[in-house]
Amino acid sequence: MEQAENANRQGALAEWITRDDLAKQLALTTDTLARWATQGNGPARIKVGRRVFYRKSTVQKWLKS
Fold it and tell me: 2-64 architecture in CATH?
């Protein structure tokens, strides 16, 4: 049962990346991404509970701009 729940989460979040993972990929700190969010900078994001997610395609567009 637990594996099925994990697979569903992976499917539902396949297009999204966590703030922690994005920070690692961009060689930034999570604090930098959080600061950008409060300043209205950086890629668009959503908050689910206490977790922040970024759509991968939105991050790609933001990086190109």
Answer: Orthogonal Bundle (1.10)
